[in-house]
Write a structure and sequence with these properties.
The chain is mainly alpha-helical and 149 residues long. The protein folds into two domains: 57 residues, no CATH class; 85 residues, no CATH class. A three-stranded antiparallel beta sheet has the order 1-2-3. Helix 3 crosses helix 4. The longest helix is centred in the N-terminal third of the chain and has 30 residues. It starts with a helix and ends with a helix.
Length: 149
């Protein structure tokens, strides 16, 4: 029996105990713990979003993440290959960082993955396919020009 199934059984037993023996309300362990955990996660997310909103209102300028997101999308729209995308980012003054010998994102005061900036693996794969197509077109043009000679 895995942990999830065991937790469901414990929660079921606790629900039965609450229903049949309401006077034992101080012996509740699992359902209140999961409620408290969910509330803490939700509270943390709301607080983080609220702080970011307040900071943006106070400073009246976009956050570093928003700035990097807009720059990354502009560079992605202009790029025809992954390498050109990386070069355009560096031309904009952004520092790239590597993780496990691959370029993983942009580094400022914090590190931001490309997926955090809204550029997923699929979009980077699209740039690779686009570069391959351009290379294929170039080889076909070279072959045609050699045939004409």
């Amino acid at each position: 029996m895995d942990d999830r199934v065991f937790m469901d059984i414990r929660l079921g037993m606790e629900a039965y105990q609450q229903e049949m023996y309401p006077e034992l309300r101080h012996s509740i362990a699992y359902s209140e713990r999961s409620k408290a955990r969910n509330n803490a996660v939700e509270r943390d997310q709301n607080t983080r979003a609220q702080r970011a909103y307040q900071r943006q209102q106070r400073t009246e300028k976009p956050s570093e993440k928003e700035q990097y997101t807009s720059i990354a999308h502009e560079c992605y729209d202009r790029a025809t290959s992954k390498q050109q995308f990386y070069e355009l980012l560096q031309e904009q003054g952004l520092t790239l960082y590597m993780y496990r010998n691959k370029i993983a994102g942009v580094q400022g005061t914090r590190k931001y993955r490309f997926s955090t900036l809204g550029i997923g693996k699929e979009q980077l794969a699209t740039l690779k396919r686009l570069a391959d197509r351009y290379a294929e077109i170039a080889t076909l043009r070279n072959e045609d020009s050699e045939r004409e000679r």
